[in-house]
Amino acid sequence: MTGFAMVQSRAVLGLDAPSVTVEVHLANGLPSFTLVGLAETEVKEARERVRSALQNSGLDFPSNKRITVNLAPADLPKDSGRFDLPIALGILAASGQIEASKLESFEFAGELSLGGELRPVRGALAMSLALRKMAICPKLVLPEASAAEAALVPDAVVFRARHLLDVVAQFVRDPAIEPVEGWSQAHAEPISTEVNVSKYLDFLDVKGQAGAKRALEIAAAGGHSALLVGPPGSGKSMLAQRFAGLLPPMSTDEALESAAIASLAGRFLLESWAQRPTRSPHHSASAVALVGGGSPPRPGEISLAHNGVLFLDELPELPRAALEALREPLETGQITISRAARRADFPARFQLMAAMNPCPCGYLGAVIGSTPRSCRCSPDQVSRYQGKLSGPLLDRIDLHIDVPTLPAAELINAPAGESTKSIRDRCIAARNRSLTRQKKPNHALQGVEIDNHVLLDDGATKFLNIAAARLGWSARATHRTLKVARTIADLAGSEFTQVTHVAEAMQYRRALRSAI
User: Fold this and answer.
1) Domain residues for 110?
2) Are 153 and 203 found together in one domain?
3) What are the pLDDT digits (tens) for 299-327?
């Protein structure tokens, strides 16, 4: 007697979810269990997990048969334990313990323990979101924790199960008469994308630094990247860690995309839903950790910061390859990871907040109160240190912000700073003006859009032409200054970009301080 069955599942490749058909064939012959279809090691190990799960659940494992499992298509690499559940159901269907036709409208994914319990799988939300984008709406059967993620996608039909026996019972009983206790449809409660500002660190904690806070307000209003430069202890990290609270609420699509990427990395938490992420990798992070990679390709820090903030402290200390890998994502908002076996695309629309000292010792040009702080670095050391940041990378950072050290008297006696909420209200109002005018934030303007929407008056045009020529700016630097000036005009409620707006924007493109 021979048996054949097919069960549908999904792989996860980046933010795509290609279909995988699990084909199971039982034949007479020497007992064996063969798994084919370009499976990674963790998939091949499913043979032992499935065998033990079936036997420990009291189900019949056809140990006297020659079992062949094919994961089609054969040229698509498969990884993780997500195929344990469909393989087990395929064996049960091929051996006649489940009616195969009942499985046809369902897709299954889940890792099995040796006792038959279902364990969550990575990327459940990404899989559900990919199906929505493809306008496909199958019935997904997932472990309980994974089902809660996948059900967040609107209109997704998701069923949760705790144990292999719960799934089997659903297809061998009449659920209308005999409901299965461990099986239920997952329904996500409507979740608002309006996050309470109190979830973010508050700018009330920041005393002084009015210039730096003004620059961060501009960055939040227009979506601009920023580099904070100052001596140790001046408050650079404190400012950057509070920046995400100034950004507008996420849309549902943005929240789903960010959550899907977190799900791919196994880091999704429901309590962080619609909260803009702030990623702060250590300065020893490699280029692969930063932009993503590996086999299969996994998202890096820039993708985990999608729709949020990437904070890079001690910027010159990062490996040169990691720094230069940021160039394209800063321009395009996405990263393509190409490997010999496969390629994956990940979104990477993040706001870069970087911080650095002006020199290796950190005190170049520092003044505390009225007393200059001595810098012990030679001009050559300063040049090498600042030279770790290439011109093309600095050119892509819109705002270069000085963060000076505060005197002790000002730090102790200064009143509390302005709250995040009040600054955020101004940022949202300015961003709404830009969205009404051009349907996108100012940092995203390209080409002719800059000419059409910046609306420079005659005096500002003449002023910028003279200044850019004297400073030797590149076309990119000039365009980025124009976009920053447009944001300053939006914050001021001005229809046109005037000389004062351009002059302030130019102050944020000053070169790093050189050694004397």
Assistant:
1) 3-186
2) no
3) 999 999 999 999 999 999 999 999 999 99
Position 512 in a domain: no
Instruction: Classify residue 214 as exposed, middle or buried by CB count within 10 Å of its CB (0-12, 13-18, 19+).
Output: middle
Residue pLDDT, tens place only, 83-102: 999 999 999 999 999 999 99
Residues 312 and 351 in one domain: yes
Check residues 368 and 351 and name the one with the higher pLDDT.
351
Of 122, 151, 186, the residue at which a domain comes to its end is 186
Chosen domain end from 186, 205, 239: 186
- Give Cα separations from 6 to 70, 73, 337 (angstroms): 10, 13, 32
> 502: how many CB neighbours lie within 10 A of its CB?
25
pTM: 0.88
Token reading at 351: 């706001």
E strand or H helix at 59, and its extent?
none
Mean pLDDT over each residue of the chain, to the nearest integer: 90
The whole-number average pLDDT for the span 153-169 is: 93
Neighbouring-strand partners of residue 400: 227
Tokens of 450: 């800059």
Reported as type and span, the H/E element at residue 516 is: none
Is 469 inside any structural domain? Answer: yes
Q: Given a cut of 90, is residue 371 above it in pLDDT?
A: no
For residues 144 and 213, membership in a common domain is answered with no
Report the C-alpha gap between 404 and 153 in whole angstroms. Answer: 46
What CATH number corresponds to the domain at position 290? Answer: 3.40.50.300
In contact, 295 and 326? CB cutoff 8 Å: no
**Residue 510 tokens, joined:** 């000053």
Per the structure block, which two tokens stand in for 38? Answer: 């370009």
pLDDT at 21: 96
Residue 379 CB-half CA count within 13 A: 3
Statement: residue 513 has pLDDT above 80: no
- φ, ψ for residue 223, nearest 5 deg: 75, 30
Whether residue 500 is contained in a domain is answered as yes
